Fold each of these.
Amino acid sequence: MVKKDRRERKGRDTKEGKFDEIKKDLERQKAALLAESGEIITGGLNPGVENFPDMTDQASAETDQNFTLRLREREQKLLKKIDEALERITDGTFGICESCGGGISLKRLEARPVTTLCIECKTRQEADEKIRES
Ligand SMILES: [Zn+2]
């Protein structure tokens, strides 16, 4: 456990202060996602679907379900990433590239807090993916 007795009292300009802001942002995003998926489960996305008569009702209900599943998959992935980022903030590994162990720039973290790679590694990874795809 690292004690925070070296805390600089400069507030939001320190890295720690920024991480606090990012953490709050992530928590807000997570709450919004959870609220949204709750709405989907209770049918909030399509309140008018019950007014459709029999045949079309069936078809559109199935389409809605597929759509909901796809959406939920994407949300769950994002939720997982947010949780992992929050964990990294807690255990002090946030902002460290998991590929090269170097620091990720604050600017990049603010733009994309769920990232686990520094810009150099990310660029290299994307280049690799492009080669694999072609
Ligand atoms: Zn890296």
Amino acid sequence: MAGRFPHSIGLGSHALTAMGFPGYNAIMPESAKSVANYLQAEGYVNYALGKWDHTPLYEVSQVGPFDRWPSGEGFDHAYTFMAADVHQFVPVMWNDHSPEPYRKSEHLDQDLADRAIMWITGHKSIKPDLPFMMLWASGSMHSPHHAPDSHIDKYKGKFDMGWDKAREEILERQIGLGIVPPDTKLTGRIDEIPAWDSLSDEEKILYARQMEVFAAQMEWVDLQIGRVVAELKRIGELDNTLIFVTSDNGASGEGGLAGTFNETYVLNGMQTDLETNLRHLDDWGRENTYPHYHAGWAMAGNTPFRYFKQSVHRGGQQDHLVVHWPDGIEAKGEIRSQYHHISDIAPTIMEAAGIEVPEELYGVPQQPMDGVSLMYSFNDASAANRKERQYYEMFGNRAIWADGWKAVTLHANRMPWDVNVVLPFDNDVWELYHVAEDFSESTNVAAEHPEKLAEMIAMFDEEAWKYNVYPLYDDMIQRLGKQQDRLFGDQKEFVYFAPGAIRIAEKSSAPVKNRAHTIETQIDLLGEEEGVIVAVGGMTGGYSMFIKDHRLYYDYNFLDGVHYTLKSSSLPKGKTDLKFNFIKTQAFGGIGELYVNGEKVDEVEMPMMHIATYSLAETFDIGRDTGTQVSDLYTGIFKFDGELDRVIITVSDENTVPPRKLPATYY
Ligand SMILES: [Ca+2]
């Protein structure tokens, strides 16, 4: 959207793993506003739908700041999930700056298409002469792989051939369709991925189901895109609308070597084992799973290339791009082979709209776009490539493309499911490919062309300095885990008032992970109240404090049915102090205690806890548990139906929180 290279605007890493260097701080400069800002300044009305994932999560709450929200980046309306992914059946959505009330959806993609159709038809009715731009960003095909049962059933048995055979069939189809050169070689299966034929029967059954669900979701999102396109046609705007359909990175190997029924494992540096996954086989793709497929299927999805999302080999960065614009492109159904990068889309939109990057926007001088418009290729298949070079860097993996050659290194040979490691850069080995003749990067020619390789590495270095790629740093999970700490500094006490303290991103809520902490409230109990006092996270992990059946509960949802649950006996009536106390006894572990009116009523050991995150999209809420539920002991948001005043969370860097001098309500 910015038309600049990621590192040149602070987005060299994911905003979740931002760090304090200009290339990675997730703070885009005011001098590099988005294509939407520029179009808006020229009278376009802009709409954003679906995934919006580059706002640092500590800025995702109803008080902003909104500079990095859709509204700050040129969109007049937004209906988004502001996270890397979201539960497709119970999505946690933002309607412009307001939390969308909790509701279940048949599937978010359908909801996004419905909303797009509402906006497009409304726009056409009210201001037919005013141009619009829409960003329609599905959460599919990111994890969780969720699809309606009816679609999953359609794919039963379709992937029993396994990933090795699938790759051969896919390449044959790609060559037949002409989307890869006829002499394209299939890269070898990497050693980390087992041969399909070596798997046990139960592994084959599980992994085939994982791919059936993925395929079902793919068809589902395709249908929803089709619905939006059909509406454009119905209202007579299809020919006049420039549509780009693309995706980001390559297929993801983050599901690791068994896939996972709960993606949050990976985000906490763990993998899911086969037995655990098998327990979720029948429900794979349904509401009570948050699944990701085996890396073997990502390998097949990246045919004919090697590696996965996160890497900058072609398997990690090659994407399809479909461009549809009958009024602007004479050619129909043709293929273009000029080399381009995602940062080239924004300049293309600008050229198509006849708008130049302004010298200033709202008084701030604007830097030129780094990208190169690809409009020159629309009506000239053989036009000379206008792109001279393109660098890549992702989590320490680096590459450079120039004039048909590509040098690339897979940092420390690290696989994408192995994210909780920090490895030296000194031993990284660069490979060289003549991609003009070797489309799939199948043959490393570094040994034959050492001078070419040296020249390419020097060119990478030049680009890296120019665009803020340095310093390189690969501690992803640690950075993810540190975000809350960095946000709050020395703040130790957090006071949340009912009913407004809801939909606060996990990363901007009280930083309790790996710290002694207390959670306290005082309620004037009538004896009938029930509901959630405070909850953060959901089915993938989190904690919740609630009253049910006249008892106080604290439930910590670790992973796969491991809950640390505390409960009181029947609560008294009248003003009652309720408290959870966590004593830290080890890194990411300790003892949980429950108190009623200062008396300890329960205690539990909590030996393993999340090191980085409970979930990606779920939030911190007072008085309810929005999105999916942390605890199996209640259903729905379980809104607290009594008088809730405030919840006070106190954290400490010691092993215990010092006793409070005054009760919670005397503040
Ligand atoms: Ca929740």
